[in-house]
Design a protein that fits this description.
The complex is a heterodimer of chains A (178) and B (160). Chain A has 178 residues and is mainly alpha-helical. Chain A has helices at residues 2-6, 8-23, 25-59, 62-69, 74-87, 95-104, 109-121, 124-134, 136-160, 163-176. Chain A has ten helices and no strands. The chains are: A mainly alpha (178), B mainly alpha (160). At the A-B interface, helix 2, helix 3, helix 6, helix 7 and helix 8 of A face helix 1, helix 2, helix 5, helix 6 and helix 7 of B.
Chain lengths: 178, 160
């Protein structure tokens, strides 16, 4: 029962896919192909991300995280958050578990939001890819708008969400990353 | 790209193992627990993204976002981009193809930006960590921001 509850979202998605077979066989087959392709990508990128997350959790002391990315870390913390997010690989949903460990270790909420933003859209390996696919002008323009954009979005979100809620999010991170 | 990630992971893992076997074991256990915790959401999201990519394929999108499609095309591109959240190595080749098929820069910019920053399909993972309110607020802000990105790229790159 617990297993069904945990996997209800996945089961729902599979039911939708099964229904697709009756509606449009071609699209359903294509979905299967795309899902397998994505599973392969996930199998490739996810293990190192989680191993790094585990190592980070064990080896980096809380004081270090607080010092470099905590409340008082200032511009240094923001730059580090952008750098760490940009150096990452893998889809955005890989960023959330990493963010949970950062929160557990005492990174400030604003820096967490900057990190998520950077991971979503200014990844360095992706930037090179973007340049070759869409041209340097396109990629550079997007990068120059994105960096301030990410920081501004983080600041707005930080103000928008109540202290109480932030506290709850940190509490949740504690249980997920233990 | 993943080669670098693997090299870094292997080096750090080796150092950790050399320094303290027990701690390294503990790290692996933590890694597994963190992964196991989010696995159901991951699997669900992957199937949903598969469905979305199959429905909104490059053909469909290039019909919707031709360079003549104007703001309406931008709107459609943004909605399609916002629904799924796919990594750049899928997004950029797709965007390049759309450009070659006559899509405008503004439409492509909003598509790429929402694709990477806004994820309705992946929201269950985000909600699990950050709760509903923050997830909704972040995605809405990223969505609005993507229009600004599109507008500026349209001016700078498209020379409108």
């Amino acid at each position: 029962m617990i297993l069904i509850k945990r996997y209800r979202f996945f089961i729902g998605a599979v039911i939708v896919l099964a229904a697709l077979f009756f509606i449009n066989n071609q699209i359903a087959m294509k979905t299967i192909d795309l899902t397998i392709y994505q599973l392969k990508t996930m199998a490739l990128v996810i293990p190192p991300i989680f191993i790094l997350l585990g190592l980070l959790d064990i080896w980096v002391p809380r004081e270090t995280m607080v010092k470099y990315m905590g409340e008082g870390s200032g511009i240094k913390g923001t730059v580090l958050a952008i750098f760490l997010g940009s150096a990452a690989a893998g889809p955005l949903y890989g960023a959330f578990p990493v963010a949970a460990v950062f929160m557990k270790k005492g990174a400030s909420f604003k820096n967490i939001l900057v990190f998520i933003g950077a991971w979503s859209t200014t990844k360095i390996p992706m930037f090179l890819f973007e340049m070759s696919a869409l041209g340097a002008k396109f990629a550079l323009t997007r990068l120059f708008i994105n960096i301030p954009g990410i920081i501004i979005i983080a600041m707005i979100l930080n103000k928008l969400i109540s202290k109480e809620e932030i506290k709850n999010i940190y509490k949740k991170a504690e249980t997920y990353a233990s | 790209m993943s080669a670098t990630l693997y090299i870094i992971t292997i080096i750090l893992f080796g150092i950790s193992y050399y320094k303290d076997k027990n701690k390294t074991k503990k790290a692996l256990k933590k890694a597994w627990k963190a992964f196991e915790n989010i696995l159901p959401q991951f699997l669900g999201v992957i199937v949903l993204v598969g469905i979305m990519l199959a429905v909104f394929d490059a053909d469909f999108i290039s019909k919707a976002v031709g360079s003549e499609s104007g703001w309406f095309g931008v709107l459609i591109a943004s909605v399609v981009g916002a629904i799924t959240l796919i990594p750049g190595f899928v997004a950029f080749p797709m965007a390049q193809m759309l450009l070659e098929n006559g899509a405008g820069y503004m439409q492509i910019a909003v598509f790429v930006s929402t694709l990477m920053m806004v994820g309705i399909v992946t929201a269950p993972v985000e909600i699990k960590y950050f709760g509903k309110r923050l997830t909704v607020a972040r995605n809405i802000l990223a969505f609005i921001f993507s229009f600004l990105v599109a507008f500026i790229i349209g001016k700078v790159v498209g020379g409108l």
